[in-house]
Write a structure and sequence with these properties.
Elements (H helix, E strand, L loop, with lengths): L9 H4 L16 E4 L10 H10 L4 E5 L6 E5 L4 E2 L6 E4 L13 E5 L11 E6 L2 E3 L1 E5 L4 E10 L1 E6 L2 E2 L11 E8 L4 E6 L2 E2 L2 E7 L4 E6 L2 E2 L15 E7 L2 E6 L8 E2 L2 E7 L4 E6 L2 E2 L13 E5 L2 E6 L8 E2 L5 E5 L10 E4 L2 E2 L13 E6 L9 E3 L13 E2 L5 E6 L5 E3 L2 E2 L12 E6 L5 E2 L9 E3 L6 E4 L12 E2 L3 E3 L6 E3 L11 E5 L4 E5 L7 E9 L12 E9 L5 E5 L9 E8 L12 E3 L5 E3 L58 E6 L4 E4 L10 E4 L11 E6 L8 E6 L11 E4 L10 E4 L6 E5 L8 E6 L4 E5 L9 E4 L6 E5 L8 E6 L5 E4 L6 E2 L4 E4 L6 E5 L8 E6 L4 E5 L10 E4 L6 E5 L20
Parallel strand pairs: 1-2, 2-5, 3-6, 4-7, 5-8, 6-9, 7-10, 8-11, 9-12, 10-13, 11-14, 12-15, 13-16, 14-17, 15-18, 16-19, 17-20, 18-21, 19-22, 20-23, 21-24, 22-25, 23-26, 24-27, 25-28, 26-29, 27-30, 28-31, 29-32, 30-33, 31-34, 32-35, 33-36, 34-37, 35-38, 36-39, 37-40, 38-41, 39-42, 40-43, ...
Antiparallel strand pairs: 44-45, 45-48, 46-47, 46-49, 49-50, 50-51, 52-53, 52-72, 53-54, 55-56, 56-57, 57-58, 59-60, 60-61, 61-62, 63-64, 64-65, 65-67, 68-69, 69-70, 70-71
């Protein structure tokens, strides 16, 4: 068990630096600042100029009127040019100390912005302590407060960015501290650095930089600034090398939070250690602190945490990922190590403080690089290498198109005491290969428990077979998860099937067979459990042993348990291909009904993701719907104001209405808005990594797939019937924040178009397809591959399928939109295996419009919408049953976007704004 963590008041941590006297260094002289003028005798500028002209390391002290004093820097910045440097000692001012510096050096007027000299103060080979550096303007400035060059610099006990109280922020600069390219040996110690776009930037080729004891992105009180507009983009940006952030002692701890990224390591950054810090929390380590992402690792040879006492970080309370390893491919034989951290829990290691995702490895598929999450597999395997990764809203560990990673010895879903905290999913592998979960020894096993979803998910990346095999899961303890212990989906791991347990012969001898024909050697691992999964296919709570199987034609095996089998316990097993490393799902459960006498609960092979099945044959003959007389639709030409509207505040008492969203094929991006009016996107979701492509005619779909009241995005791969390109695949995500496939399955044929609706009224949307060639509709209640539950005929060839709850009965039913000179909606209240009739025939829209639907006023009944693709104007109508004018219209989107409706936020929780979209043009 690792030692408890403590957080001390900042006053207990801050020790004044000793200011050398004039006789401490050769030729050094002390210059005293006696007034607040910007120039002339007794000014700070004159003291720096005198020091620059005097050989040796000089000292500048302050003897101004007692209390807080402000020095305005106008026209030209302050710069130390002496190769020996200088000590600028703001702590020499009467009443000043490391918690409350009294000398404010403030950017005034005349310093040009966004130029090489747009800093307030630049030093080299120097010590700067006890200053308040900020800007006199309340407008954002393209400048830097402190530039650090040369070597052997110490920046300590300063407030850089905030006002004199160390808490309020009046100005907002581009950079707080910049460690210049080529500089070396910089110590940044016990400062408050906040209020800038990038609070600390360590530029390319800067080296030997140490950050200890700082509050970065927070105020001197250890809390995030109250003004959200001052949130930084990045707290610490690293392009340099040999950088150490933190340390093993409490006084070395940095608290870094309140930004889009707390720490961002660019691709040039390498040889970096991040130890003993609080990242994403306040200074107490118990509360979240307005941080979107914790650590982004784009470089290489990065160590997050460590096995030594006090080296682990607390990385918690981040809205998205605690740790993100990006798709940059590092050089061979380099790696990231993530060890000994508390991820998703407070500094005590006990209470939950969730992240969106714990550890996300995105695209690290260099075969020569093995990132390590937890134990490194090198004896002795130390408990201190264990990460606590728990409580995540999505996955505790998520690997996307990655290769060769090691996940070992972690508590996944548990706190430091082994108590369950859980999370959404334990470990998810998508399109990943040769991942090792567990070292293969008892000491290197993970414990994966208590998740609302599956313990482990292994699935292919959509339409890719390059990375979805060779994933080994060995000796881990997996139990208490709401889904399966291990789910192997979509043919991943070479489609390996689970073994089947059949019973016992003799005392404690378990019998089974391997479940498929192969000539490859296999290893069957067996586990004992307190209970069986509700699917009757087990998890693996306690490993009891394994048996090697050289497969004979009958594929049977026996195993003699080395421990007595308790009555009413359950036996399960996995199998592993010893050549490829592929591991299966868990077997069926055997319940032990007497000493050494288990009985099987079932002997049926579970297939959660069956192979694709074509839609049913012999469909009903097509019958064209009657076409009523066209009633012209009013064409609206007014252009709404481009001023963004205020989104109404949601309450628990009333459901939120659907609002507009669009998908832009040009840049493969969703733009979602929380009100039906012209304005900015509230949520922007790039889909560049999701697999969406124009080649397969992918189209967007949105729906509430998990019943949480929020609609989330996905796409449908239509393909092309004309040339046989693959089609009929749905790819759906349960989140608008962290995008990956929660559901991948097939329905339909190339050329079909998707439908979305809650067909059975259970509060969860499912899907269907409309076949434009003949008007066939296939409806399915489950988000999985298989036969349709309903096959209907509605409409004519060339119609466009839609869906909605037209009569407010709680169930969605299909409809079609007939384009042409007189556009018409045909809507049915039927859901059946039948030729359906239309209950409502409604004229709405002009030729060329794109139809979509949504409950625009929150009354429970789906309304109609048309999107004018030629100019981005949207027309919405609340009543789907009667022809007439639109109830409101507005501009949102550009030519050839796709429009849809949905609820993008819950009734009580505001959305996370990922990116502000540019103003839309009509």
């Amino acid at each position: 068990m690792r030692p408890a963590r403590y957080i001390f008041p900042i006053a207990a941590l801050l020790i004044l630096l000793v200011v050398p006297s004039a006789t401490s260094h050769a030729q050094g002289t002390t210059y005293t600042v006696t007034n607040t003028n910007d120039s002339g005798a007794g000014s700070l500028r004159q003291a720096i100029a005198d020091s620059n002209a005097n050989p040796g390391k000089d000292t500048i002290t302050f003897s101004l009127d007692a209390g807080f004093q402000t020095i305005l820097v106008n026209n030209t910045p302050l710069e130390v040019t002496d190769s020996a440097g200088v000590i600028i000692n703001g702590l020499s001012q009467s009443g000043s100390n490391c918690n409350a510096p009294k000398i404010q050096v403030q950017r005034g007027i005349g310093i040009p912005e966004d130029t090489p000299n747009s800093y307030v103060l630049r030093v080299q080979h120097s010590t700067v302590q006890g200053l308040i550096l900020n800007d006199s303007s309340t407008e954002p400035r393209l400048d830097t407060l402190l530039n650090v060059g040369g070597s052997a610099n110490v920046i300590a006990c300063n407030f850089i960015g905030p006002d004199s109280d160390g808490i309020s922020i009046s100005s907002h600069n581009s950079y707080g501290v910049v460690v210049e390219s080529g500089s070396t040996g910089t110590i940044i110690d016990r400062n408050v650095i906040t209020g800038s776009g990038v609070n600390v930037s360590i530029n390319e080729n800067a080296s030997n930089v140490t950050l200890t004891g700082n509050y970065i992105g927070l105020g001197a009180n250890g809390l995030p600034p109250a003004v959200s507009a001052n949130q930084a983009s990045i707290d610490v940006f690293i392009q340099g090398f040999d950088v150490h952030i933190g340390g093993s002692m409490p006084a070395q701890r940095n608290v870094i939070a309140g930004a889009t990224y707390a720490i961002y390591i660019q691709i040039e950054g390498h040889d970096i250690k991040i130890t003993g810090n609080y990242i994403g929390t306040d200074a107490s380590g118990t509360q979240k602190a307005k941080t979107l992402r914790g650590i982004h690792i784009g470089g290489y040879s990065v160590q997050v945490g460590g096995s030594g006492a006090g080296e682990g970080n607390v990385i918690s309370g981040n809205d998205l990922e605690a740790i993100l390893l990006s798709s940059y491919q590092p050089p061979a034989n380099t790696q990231a190590k993530i060890q000994g951290n508390y991820i998703g829990v407070t500094a005590s290691g006990v209470d939950p403080l969730p992240n969106g995702v714990g550890v996300f490895v995105n695209g690290q598929d260099n075969a020569n690089v093995r990132n390590i999450i937890g134990m490194d597999g090198i004896a002795p395997e130390l408990d201190s290498e264990r990460n606590i990764i728990a409580g995540s809203k999505r996955e505790n560990i998520y690997l996307l198109v990655s290769r060769g990673q090691l996940i070992a010895g972690n508590y996944v879903g548990l706190n430091i005491n082994g108590d369950i905290i859980g999370g959404g999913t334990g470990i998810r592998l998508i399109g990943s290969s040769h991942i090792q979960i567990g070292t293969g020894s008892a000491e290197g096993a993970n414990i994966i428990a208590g998740h609302t979803g599956d313990g482990i998910v292994i699935e292919p990346y959509p339409n890719s077979v390059a990375y979805d095999f060779g994933n080994t899961v060995s000796l881990n303890s997996i139990y208490g998860n709401g889904g399966l212990g291990i789910r192997v989906a979509g043919g991943a791991n070479h489609g390996i099937t689970q073994p089947v347990l059949t019973g016992v012969s003799g005392s404690n001898t378990i019998n089974g067979y391997i479940g498929d024909a192969t000539t490859t050697d296999l290893v069957v691992e067996l586990f004992v459990n307190d209970e069986c999964d509700q699917s009757n296919y087990g998890e693996g709570q306690e490993y009891i042993g394994s048996v090697s199987v050289f497969v004979q034609p009958n594929g049977t095996f026996t195993f003699d348990s080395p421990v007595p089998l308790n009555i009413d316990s359950y036996i399960t097993a996995t199998k592993r291909n010893t050549v490829t490393g592929d591991t299966s799902m868990f077997s069926n459960c055997l319940r032990v009904t007497g000493a050494g006498t288990p009985t099987p609960t079932t002997a049926i092979i579970l297939t959660r993701y069956p192979t694709r099945t074509s839609t049913p044959s012999s469909p009903p003959s097509i019958t064209a719907s009657a076409t009523p007389t066209h009633t012209p639709t009013q064409t609206f030409t007014a252009t709404p104001s481009n001023t963004p509207s205020v989104t109404p505040t949601a309450t628990e008492s009333a459901p939120l209405p659907d609002t507009i969203g669009i998908y832009r094929p040009l840049n493969k991006t969703f733009y979602l808005r929380n009100s039906n009016s012209t304005g900015y996107a509230d949520i922007t979701i790039p889909m560049s990594t999701s697999g969406m492509t124009e080649n397969y005619r992918d189209v967007p779909v949105v729906g509430d797939w998990n019943g949480d009241g929020v609609d989330t995005i996905g796409y449908y791969r239509r393909g092309r019937a004309s040339d046989g390109l693959y089609g009929g695949m749905f790819w759906l995500s349960d989140s608008n924040e962290i995008i990956h496939a929660d559901y991948v399955f097939t329905l339909g044929n190339p050329g079909d178009t998707p439908l979305v609706g809650d067909w059975d009224g259970d509060g969860r949307d499912s899907v269907g397809v409309f076949r434009p060639s003949n008007g066939l509709i296939y409806i399915k209640n489950e988000l999985s591959t298989g036969f349709a539950d309903y096959t209907m005929v509605l409409g004519n060839p060339g119609d466009i399928g839609i869906a909605g709850d037209w009569d407010d009965d709680g169930r969605d039913t299909p409809g079609v939109y007939r384009p042409g000179a007189n556009p018409q909606f045909y809507l049915t209240n039927q859901l059946c295996n039948c030729v359906a009739f239309s209950n409502y025939n409604v004229s709405f829209g002009d030729p060329g419009d794109q139809p979509f639907t949504g409950d625009w006023n929150g009354d429970g009944r789906t309304g109609l919408g048309v999107y004018r693709t030629s100019n981005g104007i949207t027309y919405l109508r609340n009543d789907p049953t009667m022809t007439g004018f639109s109830d409101f219209d507005f501009v949102y989107g550009v030519e050839n976007d796709f429009a849809f409706g949905g609820v993008w936020i819950s009734a009580n929780t505001p959305p996370v704004q990922l990116e502000v979209a540019p103003t839309f043009q009509p």
